[in-house]
Design a protein that fits this description.
The chain is α+β, with helices and mostly antiparallel strands and about 375 residues long. The chain has 12 helices and 12 strands. Strands 1, 2, 3, 4, 5, 8 and 9 form a 7-stranded mixed β-sheet that branches. Strand 2 and strand 3 form a beta hairpin. The longest helix has 19 residues. It is globular. The chain starts with 16 loop residues before the first helix and ends in an 18-residue tail after the last helix.
Amino acid sequence: MEIRLHDAVGEDEDVPEWALHYNAKEYPRHAVTGDAVALALDEGGAAPGLDALVVTRAKDPFAGLDAWPGGFLDWVEDDDTHQAAVRELREETGMAPPEYVEPLGSYSRNGRDPRQFAGYRTKGGEWVARGTRVTSNAYLMLMRKDAGRAPAAADDASGARWASVYAYLPWEDLRAAAGRDAARAALDALRAWADASEDAGDRRERIDYAWGFGLKEWNEERVPERWALLVEAALVPEGRRDRWGRSGGGDDRHGREMAFDHRQVLADALGRLRGKIKYLPAALVALAGDELTLDELQAACEAIAGRPLHRANFRRTVAPPAGEGRQPRTPRIVAGTGRRKRRGAGEPGVAPELFRFRPDAVRARLDTSLRLPWLPVPSA
């Protein structure tokens, strides 16, 4: 029998004794939201990028800043925060949820939402608190863009659009000089912050770990650790905010500011995704499609990881070598289809072969994660 939690208690229902005396007003007020963290590949440019579906907040706090589509759990209509996130995605962007959805994390840090401290002062000077502490459950959603459909803002969002993930975390894209410059600028600022402290040694050690010893041993999955250091050093607005969410202004040298703790959510999502493409091909299928060329697959991995791959070694990693037959001796995630991709009129060269993700690889977690052959970060 389905239990509807908001149904009225019947007159003849046997109500337990504790329920007759429990009073939620005896405890601190608390609210819960569901946020939709939707990511997709941007295949429109010369090199694919990774985009996030964001809305622009129409109301304070953080009016005018980008945020994830999301909102408060509806006490009557929403069964859980997953349902709330899906509903808010539809209401604020007009977009349907993708097939690939997984819980990302629960965000409950004290003060993460300035509405916690809302209230007013009486004529006698007494402060009357009217806020509530807010916890957000975020859901990672991987999808493909619909070329014929753009996000449309509605509800309490003044705008909705696809925006580059690397506009918010520019140091995470080391494929181009601009991203490498952003990483080195952030690293220089962090080192200066460390050197000005009495515990410089500990800070230096954490910086080296997170930032790959001057980018020389870069680990693309340590996005949350790098973000946490920038916040701790107050190098980003999120690290300088007061309880009302005011940061006193600033520039976007270290990426575009987001509302609440939504850049932390993005850092967590990007780190999770970068690890996931190495052991769960379903994540790549959700973003790149089931059928593609090896160059397209490489470009997708590079866009997600923000760093380039060795072309020949990448092909040997993901596809069976020629002559190995239909059952390769070592596990691979794609296999040739025997068909070639259609080229546009006037395009030079031989049409590349199309590959398809192996069904047995897509449906299960890989026993051994892929060792992707990253190229070293250029020194300049």
